[in-house]
Amino acid sequence: MRFWYLTKATRLSTHKAIRSLRMSSSSQNQPSRQTPTPTPTQTPDHDPPNWMTLKLPPAHILSHLTDAHCHPTDLDQPASAYDATSLGAVAAMATEPENQPKVRSVALARPWKKGDTKPSSSGSRIIACFGYHPWFSHRYTLQSPPPSKEEHYTSLFFPQHDSSTPPPTKKGQLLGLLLPFLPDPIEFGPLISQLSSDIRDSVSAGNLTMLGEVGLDGGARLRWPTSARHLHPDAETDDREGDNWNVLTPFKTSMAHQIAILERQFEVAIQHGVNVSLHSVAAAGPTFDTLVKMRDRHRNRFTNRINVDIHSGGGFSPDHWKQTERNLLNVYASPSIFVTSRSSHAAELIRTISKDRMLVESDSHDLTLCTRAVWGATEWIARCRGWKLEDENTPAWTLDEVIAKEEQEEQEGARTEERDEVWAVRTLERNFARFMNMAE
Ligand SMILES: [Zn+2]
After folding, report:
1. Prediction pTM value
2. Got the DSSP string for 105-166?
3. Cα(91) to centroid of ligand 1, in Å?
């Protein structure tokens, strides 16, 4: 998830403020511009820790963790920033047609080779993730040749209105007014071909690869085009300048269109056998239904071959999560400080996710924040679950040793729940390796 209505320059300048606000605000769709409230140092047991000030463990411990979902190519970060990141790997998401090549090139420079269970010796490796984010799904059409703008946007924003022109309502009139300023619809077929070849090339080079960030968002609204600012009712009185003018329209892209765009991308993931990083906001029902549909359509090719990570837990309620886990054996969740903590039932959700379905992520686009955000989430998960947290007194270990120990315990018949010691970093590391089918 990103704040797509901000331009890159604004995102840079407001980045830190937004991050802090995300921790205290509820699931609003827009960042406000107040001064961030500092998080208290003493937090109740199940509140997230202050990720900005918490003490980091030694680098060898961090090197066992992977950020399962972040956006480092959103900012132009030098190679030295990747060298300086202590995490073992980061999964770098793509979101729009424009940033797929950036992900391709950073991931090629620091790939994580499939089957390599050794920790990285020089900064973070990158898992290439290609895909089209639901916030931009209004840009794409599944028709060829593309329909007119009027027909396209009417069908997306007024799905019940059986006509190729906007309805004669206030909202319909607004669409008519803004149409000249909206982009022409892009054919999705060629974008799918590009997606498929990016994923195929990355997989055949032996590099860990995923589909992402894709998904469904029931809350996202179209940004008011800045070129149509003069048409906004507040244009005269609102003196915010340039990039600071971030106003949303009432238009939401129909769930049917979002599902169609998502399904096309899922088909690519299933074809190439790659995992999916899935955005799900205010769309728990449609997300579940789409996953079940994929399961029923593809059976083993879906459930045994690929895994799905619900990014930041998707704001699922604990009950919804339980239902998802019961029905879909290949679904994981990766709590984050920035997004998951905004939900009032976050701690309960973390306690509900099965021990072997838990991953961890930052959702940061600033690479320099990924390590802190991932460590903060790891500490938070450990506290919510009563897991032990590795620290400077923990002797070095290898993933191979963790896997061998797990196999031995399985042979001895000790059930996971009965073992007294659960170590957070080793559990998350083992889960990520299982998620990526690295050691099966
Ligand atoms: Zn994201």
Report:
1. 0.88
2. HHHHHSB-BTT--SPPSSS-EEEEEE---GGGGGGEESSSS---HHHHHHHHH-TTS-SSS-
3. 10
